[in-house]
Sequence to fold (330 residues):
Amino acid sequence: MRAARILTLQNGMLRISGFLAGLAVCVGACAQAWPTKPIRWVVPYGPGSTDILARLIAPKVGAALGQQIVVENRPGAGGSVGSEQVAKGAADGYTLLLGTAASHAVNPALYSKVGYDAVRDFAPVINLASIPNVVIINPQLPYKTIPDLIAAAKAKPSTITYSSNGSGTSQHMSAALFEMLTGVKMVHVPYKGSSEGVIAVTRGDVNVMFANMPPSLPLIKDGRVRPIAVTTAQRLAAFPGLPTVAETGVTGYEVSTWFALFVPAATPEAIVQRLNREFAAALADSDIREKLMAQGYTINGGSPQDLGNLVRAELVKWARVVKESGAKAE
Fold:
């Protein structure tokens, strides 16, 4: 009787083991067969600089995967709305996220509550690219340098207005860091997208913007906005005469915006690695590189682990800036 019970337990374990082995084979086979339908790439911001990158890369990667990659704008709460949607989505490789320093480093500190954990709820795939922000002014205003802007803001606190593509975005935080380091007080006017914020400067609806470079370039060339500085540590090759904010006397100031690919945390590792390879190959394509660099992007790349390390470091950096600057979500 005792032997029969043992035999029954052993058979039960064999059946369970067989089930688990089959499940492992299924997961591996599913990942290997992936993708078998179109892939959705969520951009958690409105039209502007962020989706320019996605729309340039998506066709190349889609062709390599044999499936269309559909770029979808899901703006709201500085990138939190679209990011939460992906975090809670199916981890099957058919939903991607274009995350940024805002969605994955600033928002957890800026908002009292976001619907995701930037580290726990996502699998990092690849750091795609980064861009500088450029400080642009309505050309009808007298400010021609950063010291001019600082002097005006100090003379009449809380009268200089600046636009952004939403609370917590790099544009907002570029200005918040500027306020923190210079001691000035300006008024934040968030818009739904980068393009809307830049156009607000041209119309005179706001005075200044720490804008992403891509949507600003055409208006800079047309003279519809006046650039006075860039936010990066080094001057840009495309604008060698344009100083950095730090050069003008704002010591320690440096901001660049990174754009990276994430998927829901439980996505199979085989799919994560495949995505990393295909997106790296797209970034290495000469035509893609030329187009991105013409828009002001710096190509990054790297492993999923590299991106994970970046996110953790940026979370620490921007938590400090949010706390010390007193920046608020609006």
About this structure: The two ends are 72 Å apart (CA to CA). Residues 2-33 form the longest helix (32 residues). The CA atoms of residues 154 and 230 lie 21 Å apart.
